[in-house]
Amino acid sequence: MNWAAFSTAVPDLAKTGEERFGAHRHHVLATLRKDGSPRTSGIEVRFLGGELWLGMMSGSLKALDLRRDPRFALQANPGAGTDMGGGDVRIGGRAYEVEDGAARAAYVEEVEPPQPFHLFRTELTEVVRTYVEDDTYLVTQVWKPGEPVRALRRT
Shortest CA distance to 71 belongs to which of 29, 119, 114? Predict the structure, then answer.
């Protein structure tokens, strides 16, 4: 499921996700190394044409990780201080490299990334938002394809 389909299925959560990722330029991407251990890297993300795109420098380790194993986790930058304004948003999924075609050309036209670069289209497997409600509850919203959003509240 791409970002457009997620946005149609769960518009409020998608809007919050875009706001959280739009609030800051740099975020954290987790990929899997050859030995299966996690690697975290800084990344900039884009929401364009109904897709969540991951662009990265040519030959970067995170790009090589995704070529080998497309699974990823993406954490929105929580921002400075303790006010997370909209909560913590994490996205899990798979990323597939786009090497040519109209989608890549549109991305290049819009973003003007340094050349050469890797571009990955994402398919979502999970979106999680965690926030504090009424200064009392820690609320975790969990969405997975084909399922309604589950909300868990803890005091």
Answer: 29
